[in-house]
Amino acid sequence: MIGLGFSAPMGVTTTATATKCRYKVMGFRVLADAGDGFPSFLPKEVRKIKDPFARKLAQRIVRLPVQIGFSENCIMSSCVKPLMRSETNPVVLLHCFDSSCLEWRSTYPLLEEAGLEAWAVDVLGWGFSDLERLPSCCAASKRHHLHQLWRSHIKRPMILVGPSLGAAVAIDFAVNYPEAVEKLVLIDASVYAEGTGNLRKLPRIVAYAGVSLLKSIPLRLYANLLAFNGISFPTSLDWTNVGRLHCLLPWWEDATVNFMKSGGYNVVDQIKKVEQKALIIWGEHDRIISNELAVRLHRELPNAVVRQIPDSGHLPHIEKPKTVAKLIADFALHDRC
Predict the structure, then answer these.
(1) Which range marks the domain in which residue 205 is found?
(2) Of 164, 236, 262, 312, which one is the catalytic site residue?
(3) Residue 234 lies inside a defined structural domain of this protein
(4) Catalytic (active site) residue 286
(5) Of residues 145, 286, 312, 317, which has the active-site annotation?
(6) Which ranges carry the AB hydrolase-1 domain (predicted)?
(7) What CATH number did the domain enclosing 165 receive?
(8) What is the pTM of this model?
(9) What are 161's strand-pairing partners?
(10) What is the pLDDT of residues 58-105, one digit of tens each?
(11) Number of domains, the chain
């Protein structure tokens, strides 16, 4: 494993490293389009996806260079960039555990229509970044990588949006880098689990076996049954293919085991330290995270409002994109929801 250089001074980039990053970006521009609109670094199975919103957003995924410490290699990091910059602060969309920016396929275009500068970024270790030289994928590494991406490309305080485990990523980031976050939006937040628990103690061979099961179609189909409030089998199967697409990259298993063995996210003690105003969104029929935890989170966050979405399960930004987009836009643009 190649560790990330956490001790590097902010803003330090060597000439050789910068040159290498520029070279990789140039190479990406040459190889980006596979001839059918999809970037060449996506698994070929992307062509089997039927969801038109997923297909369209997948065609917009790019890799941007993110410089980490003194390393001579930047990480080519996947995200969906806004088509144009706006005068208001950008909305930056994270994703759930073991997911990707494609999670925002239905909501992202609605945020753009509302006039927001929206970024959908892949958390280090998941999504479609180039991790051929695998970095550490622990919580601290994920936080540092997101900060470097923000410093290099976004550069303004964000409305940071985190669904499920992405809410833990968002809280951890906002507490450690408050200058980078204007507001928080937390969707069906998984923030009270104390990391990966006993999974971190598993023998490595057992951990790899469990992670291999994690990307299986039957398990992902079952997860969809729990996550969504009633969808047809063909839709569930197609959404399963969308949700596991990043698992087909060659470094996915290593990155996921690395995260599991690192202990994961434990942000329980950070919640009351959040300084930013927060919007809590919760699906009324969430069968994965209890609605009681929404009440607890509302009580423990110093400055938060909560909104419940009827007829929605654990992922309302997929099930009810119009409602979620309006809540985010009103909160971002007008400070109301």
Answers:
(1) 84-334
(2) 164
(3) yes
(4) yes
(5) 286
(6) 91-326
(7) 3.40.50.1820
(8) 0.88
(9) 93, 185
(10) 999 999 999 887 555 789 999 999 998 888 899 999 999 999 999 999
(11) 1
